[in-house]
Specification:
Bound molecules: iron/sulfur cluster
Structural class: alpha/beta
Helix content: 25-40%
Largest sheet: 9 strands, mixed
Distance between the termini: 28 Å
Number of helices: 15
Number of strands: 17
Oligomer: single chain
Shape: globular
Strand content: 15-25%
Length: 372
């Protein structure tokens, strides 16, 4: 069982973010917990069991804005007390957190509630860049957050970093990777900055206050991260994710291998192997639906066999596992000739250059049914 809990609240909108969030000064924690429990009652409470491959993931938004007691109440419903210790049971319980929310007390309370993995939205170790991003933390808070988590017994820590920023910020990507490396976390996620419509960044670019990220710089920084992190002992096991000591995100790996999952909360998606459902996006609409005893599902789509095959090809190529060569009945020679794909031990895999062009590769094979 893989359970995703979407927590939509943020205290402000980051300059590049177009996620479905609810900006709130005061977090309506009790209403949120009631809504999640109400949705659980409706969908039939999925409970993680100690089978060794279960995961629960609090994503957002900013889940760390919820009081620890609210997180504990939700976990009580989906995570039996006896399964709280991941080494014993294999249940990975992740909380996305912003560094400024990670106090020693919160870290201890999260651990007691069952959280055993934290994904920290570090983004950069340059305070000027963090201000430009509208982040509410500074670099020193990220360092303190990692320490507080370790002191509380949470060793499995991931950092998010964003690359490909506009030239004029003079961001030193190598320095940021060095700072992240110095913290010795188990996992790093690196995301390229994209300009989404109607974000503050989009507006700044439209009025000439900043420049759109440069494609060449984007590619250079992505490839540099590959070289640097690989040399530092990380394995890039997915286009944006690198892990040390085999500590991959089991939850996200379940998505990438096409496993079924249950999503709770506004905008959360669920998948049962053939049908994908998604909840109402807006917090208020979601809360009202659950409170009135209606389904929170906004819509659903049943994937055709062809869609599933293409999705499988896309997900497989995102990961280091790639796809069996036999899945490509007619692998197009130009793809391998360009150095974007390689065949290793009977499997077709993206090279780092290929991962940079994953969308083009998938677009190409989507027009050729025989290729996947
Ligand atoms: S904290 Fe995350 S979800 Fe919230 S606004 Fe920033 S990027 Fe978006």
């Amino acid at each position: 069982m893989h359970i995703y809990v979407h927590v939509p609240f943020c205290q402000r909108r980051c300059s590049y973010c177009d996620f479905s969030i609810a900006v709130r000064k005061r977090i309506p924690a009790q209403e949120y917990v009631d809504a999640i429990i109400g949705e659980l009652a409706r969908v039939g409470s999925p409970a993680a069991t100690p089978r060794g491959n279960d995961t629960i993931y609090f994503g957002g938004g900013t889940p760390s804005l919820l009081p620890p007691a609210a997180i504990a109440t939700i976990l009580e419903k989906v995570l039996p007390r006896t399964t709280h210790d991941v080494p014993r049971t294999g249940v990975e319980v992740t909380l996305e957190a912003n560094p400024e929310d990670v106090t020693p007390d919160h870290a201890v309370a999260w651990r007691a509630a069952g959280i055993n993995r934290v994904s920290l939205g570090a983004q950069s170790f340059d305070d000027t860049v963090l201000k430009w991003m509208h982040r509410s933390h500074d670099a020193a808070q990220t360092t303190r957050a990692v320490q507080a988590l370790r002191d509380a017994g949470i060793e499995n820590i991931s950092l998010d970093l964003i690359f490909g920023l506009p030239e004029e910020l003079k961001r030193n990507w190598e320095r940021d990777l060095d700072m992240a490396h110095a913290l010795r976390t188990t996992h790093l996620s690196v995301y390229g900055l994209t300009v989404e419509p109607r974000t503050p960044l989009d507006r700044w670019i439209s009025r000439g206050a900043t420049h759109a990220p440069d494609e060449e710089r984007y590619a250079e920084e992505y490839l540099f991260a590959h070289r640097r992190l690989t040399a530092d002992g990380f394995v890039f096991y997915e286009v944006s994710n690198a892990a040390r000591d085999g500590l991959r995100s089991q939850h996200n790996s379940a998505y990438w291998s096409g496993k079924a999952y249950v999503g709770l909360g506004p905008a959360a998606h669920s998948f049962d192997g053939t049908t994908r459902r998604w909840n109402l996006r807006a917090w208020e609409a979601y809360r009202r639906a659950v409170a009135e005893g209606r389904s929170a599902v906004e819509s659903e789509e049943r994937l055709t066999e062809e869609q599933r095959a293409l999705e499988q090809a896309y997900l497989g190529l995102r990961t280091i596992e790639g796809l069996p060569v036999t899945a490509f009945a007619r692998l197009r020679p130009p793809l391998t000739a360009q150095g974007w794909l390689e065949v290793v031990d009977g499997r077709v895999k993206c090279t780092p250059e290929g991962w940079l062009r994953l969308d083009s590769i998938v677009n190409e094979i989507s027009h050729d049914r025989a290729a996947y």
